[in-house]
Design brief:
4-stranded antiparallel beta sheet, globular, 3 helices, alpha+beta, Alpha-Beta Plaits
Length: about 110
């Protein structure tokens, strides 16, 4: 893929992991959470099997949204055990107003 918002040039697979994660930080921690995620974007995009890792925020700047795609479950699991990802999760322990809401999705081929 050539888009700047995409990860490694991995082929699409039926067993790909697709998800949207809604992250709701406490007001005082919003910028800390945003900065922490921004800090891992490029390294995550270089991980094996990462096809998409994009961060968005709502207009009110009260919610962060991650859109992710990994070629395989093993690649997704690899991402979540990396020290930089674990550091973000440690911040979440004190910073979130509600638990992260994750929606796993299946691509519909048309």
């Amino acid at each position: 893929m050539t888009n700047d918002n995409t990860c490694n040039d991995s082929p699409l697979h039926n067993d790909a992991v697709n998800l949207v994660a809604y992250i709701n930080p406490k007001t005082d921690y919003y910028q800390d959470c945003k900065t922490a995620i921004e800090a891992i974007i490029e390294v995550t995009r270089r991980e094996p099997g990462c096809q998409r890792f994009e961060l968005y925020e709502n207009q009110a700047q009260s919610q962060l949204i991650l859109i992710e795609r990994f070629s395989r479950r093993d690649d997704f699991d690899f991402h979540h055990v990396q020290p930089y990802t674990q550091k973000v999760y440690q911040l979440y322990e004190q910073a979130l107003a509600t638990p992260v809401e994750i929606h796993f999705m299946t691509q519909i081929d048309v």
